[in-house]
Amino acid sequence: MNRVACLLLSVFAASAHAAGWTHAGQIDSPCCFSGSHDGMKFGTVVAADLDTGSPPQVRALYVGAPGFSIVDGPTVYPEAGIVFVFVPTNGGWQEATYLTSAFPSANGHFGAALAVDSGVVAIGEPGYDNATHTDAGRITLLHDRNRSNPTYTPPQFDGLYFWDSTLDNGHFGSSVAVAGDGIGTGGAGNWIVGGAPGAGAGCSSLIYFGDDQSWDDKGSVCGATNGDVFGASVAAYSFGAGDMLMAVGAPGEGSTAGGAHVYHLSGGAIANLSNLQAQNPGIFGFFGTSIAIDSQRLYVGATGGDKPAVGRTGSVTLFNPGGPNHFTFSGEVFPGSDAQAGDLCGASIGLNLVGTGFAMGCPGSDAQSSGEGFARVVVPIPFIGGTLWIDQALQMGSLPHGADDMGRGVAMVGNYVYAGAPLADDLLGSDNGIIQIFGPDELFTDGFD
After folding, report:
1. Is the Cα dihedral 300, 361, 310, 2 positive or negative?
2. How far, CA to CA in Å, does 236 sit from each of 74, 77, 375, 447?
3. pLDDT confidence bin for 67, thresholds 50/70/90
4. How far apart are CA 345 and CA 80, in angstroms?
5. Are strands 243-250 and 358-362 parallel, antiparallel or unpaired?
6. How far apart are CA 377 and CA 359, in angstroms?
7. pLDDT tens figures, 77-123
8. Among 12, 36, 131, 419, which is most exposed with the fewest C-beta within 10 angstroms?
């Protein structure tokens, strides 16, 4: 009986791999305007926004380059940061615009974090100095007010331009999340969450950006102990204008074992709903490095997740809604084939915006180059009344690459994964970055498995 089960598992795994993913192209870091072309770190974070069509398609791809140095006449703002926006065009990708801080700050790292949903864009600038408050950080909010128009237009400032912090060394904007149904397109508005993990225990703050283009401060929650790094990752799920879930990762909690916390806002008050740990917590687990939430479950990345007989490969732990703690452990996804200690899997999580499964970034993975990085597609397979999660490694293989840190940022839409490789070198300099695109292997598009 056990042998049959193992054979069945092998068949499911083979079928998932045979479904076929292959390298489908790339988006290079832009080159031709005033600014630094060395150390941009393009691809540190990647986020996709969808159009209003049925089925929805990618309207725009936002890519953070927090190491970009802005040149404004004689003044240079080193590592001020920038966000590039790309739109799909004739089977490829075209740069539509770029976004910078309205008041660039040296080492501001604008674009170190970004999130977008239903046209509302939040961009973190965790190194921003707010007057005398060094590295306080801030978040810039923009709105694509013409989402019903098939032609993309750059997002605009509406209502709230900047969401500043006055917390010294708080690094507000190190993480951001957006969730809602949009503004001006029949939607009621969007929730925005920002993490400030830098000072003390760390904090996370919440606002609601309404359809009237005004905003409401809903308050903050903070970690319990210095070094928790509470707010290193954040996620949000909207039930409507007065009801939402906010998830916060604290990878430094418990002497680096890490933790994740879920809060419910209803009736204008934030209540702690769940306090979660890894299934087998231990130091250097860094549970909470990344976090995501959808209608089905909560996902928590831990770059130090310890795979039996392999080592600290990293992992993503899944929790289902329900149970005494409101979320119940469902499973822990480790990298499968080619897994090695130091893979840093769970550094990023990209939920599939159109379909099932998710992408898991493993930027520490080694193959032909040390630290080249992998992305991994993780899909659910029904199995004997339950669910198996099967992963496939997406890697560059013999294609040109180096110690690129691929998977540091990752987004997934349908059958395509967009993996940021911020340490990729190009002809202009080192660590400029690139986006590697993976899609279906056409060998299997006729259904042959």
Report:
1. positive
2. 41, 32, 23, 36
3. very high
4. 28
5. unpaired
6. 5
7. 999 999 999 999 988 999 999 999 988 989 999 999 999 999 999 99
8. 131
As a whole number of Å, the end-to-end CA separation of the chain is 26
Which residues, at least 6 apart from 226, have a Cβ–Cβ distance to it below 8 Å?
200, 201
Residue bearing tokens 């997406």: 394
Rg of the chain's alpha carbons, rounded to an integer?
21
Secondary structure (DSSP) of 145-196: TTTTSSS----B--S--EEE---TT--BTSEEEEEEEEESSS-EEEEEEEEE
Inter-CA distances, 90 with 22, 93, 94, 348, 437, Å = 20, 8, 9, 29, 16
C-alpha to C-alpha distance for 351 and 295, rounded to whole angstroms: 11
**Token duo for residue 177:** 């999340």
* Domains within the chain, CATH numbers bracketed: 2-438 (2.130.10.130)
Residue (of 326, 417, 433) closest to 112 by Cα position = 433
AA letter at 273: L
Q: Which residues contact 137 (CB under 8 A, 6 or more apart)?
A: 124, 125, 126, 127, 128, 130, 165, 167, 170, 171, 172, 173, 174, 196, 198
Give the residue among 268, 228, 270, 226 at the shortest CA–CA distance from 245.
270
What is the pTM (predicted TM-score) of this model? 0.93
